[in-house]
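== Sequence entry ==
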Amino acid sequence: MKLTEAPNCPYCGQKMSKTEPPTFNLSDGLGWCTPYMYICFNDECSFYVKGWEQIMVNYGKTASYRCMYYPDTGEMDAICVYAPDGLKGQIIEE
C-alpha cells in the first residue's frame, strides 16, 4: 500500500515527518531503495523512549530506535538512532 501522505505513528499518534534516508547503507550495501521515508520524531513516543533501555540491556550500547514507514510499500520498520537529534537534520520540509 503506497503512502501518499505522512502517516501517524502507531505508538504515539503524532504525524510522522518526511525524511531523507541516512547516508549510511544497510548491510547489503544497496542503500535504502527509497528517496524518502516517514519517521516519528516525537521524543515522548513510547517506542523511542523504551528503546534506550532495550538496546542497553540487550546490546550494551547507547542507542534507541524510531518508528518509520517506507512510502512505496507502507511497510513499518524501526530505524536506529544514537542520539536524540539523530536523523533530525534529514527532515524534508513540505
